[in-house]
Write a structure and sequence with these properties.
By secondary structure, the protein is α/β, with parallel strands linked by helices. The protein has helices at about 10-20, 25-30, 35-50, 65-85, 115-125, 140-145, 185, 195-200, 215-225, 240-245, 255-260, 295-310, and strands at about 55-60, 60-65, 100-105, 130-135, 150-155, 165-170, 175-180, 200-205, 230-235, 250-255, 265-270, 280-285. The chain contains twelve helices and twelve strands. Strand 8, helix 9 and strand 9 form a beta-alpha-beta unit. One of its GO terms (molecular function) is DNA-binding transcription factor activity.
Length: about 300
Amino acid sequence: MSSLPQHLDLHLIRILYLLLVEKNVSRVALKLNQPQPSISASLRKLRELTGDPLLVRGARGMVPTQHGESLLNPAKRILDQTESLFVRKTPFVAQEEARTFHIAAPDYLDSQFLPNVVALLRRGSPRSRVVLHSLGPGIDHIRQLSDGGLDLVIANWDEPPAHLHISKLFEDPIICAMHAENAYARRTASDAMTLDDYLSLPHVAPSPMMPGYHGVIDSFLERQNLQRNVVVESAYFGLIPYMLTQTDLVLTTGRQFIRFYEKTLPLKTYTVPLKFPPMRFYQLWHQRVHQAPEHKWLRDQVSAAAKALAKN
């Protein structure tokens, strides 16, 4: 690389390619709408750079030297690859094209939401592949968004990372739930839970999604100088509703999440005696894919699934 001139002119490579193809300085001058002396000067410069005559007189005009012929394909490849750098992005034709989309999300989303997202993606782009990734303390989702391991992250934060693009999807009011035959549930109405009751009851909570991140529930309580009695921590959030049916545990979560399990499990829900802000779910993505047509389409499908959820 050190032997290359400091400023290599792409136009000079185009002249090299045309000279080797046309084998005539005058024709190249006409093609490029330049004076013949200018093309002749470029040929001299090319000969100086390559250390080879490139074109020599033959029986019927100019012919490339052996070294000149060897430069034809590399010159064309450089011109083709350079042109591809500046091709305008074409729209993503979802029904016809195939892409692989990597989406990370926690398992405490509304039980209908991710299935609806997958259904929209399958209907909209049947040739594409969808890979769903979990979120946990061992996953650096911010780095993976930057490096390309993930295309989209769906989750809830008090304060989403400021340097990422963000789109709000939906809100989920916070309630708590327990087994309907829980001793506390049998004697207490759904609207009669006191703050002391709430803090002292045995709670089950999800494991931290990220190192040092306590989740929206405990982060809010900490800001109020309060602490609940978490006695079970589970990395398997989808199993927690079933734990409630066999224990005295209390779960604090979003209303949309628990309503799915209320249909089949003997659960009783309570209004939390604190003004928790609703759980706010977002989709996050990196500048790397911000302008890509297929990723704009992907985010539109996720937003559509969120809007459908809000109507239910």
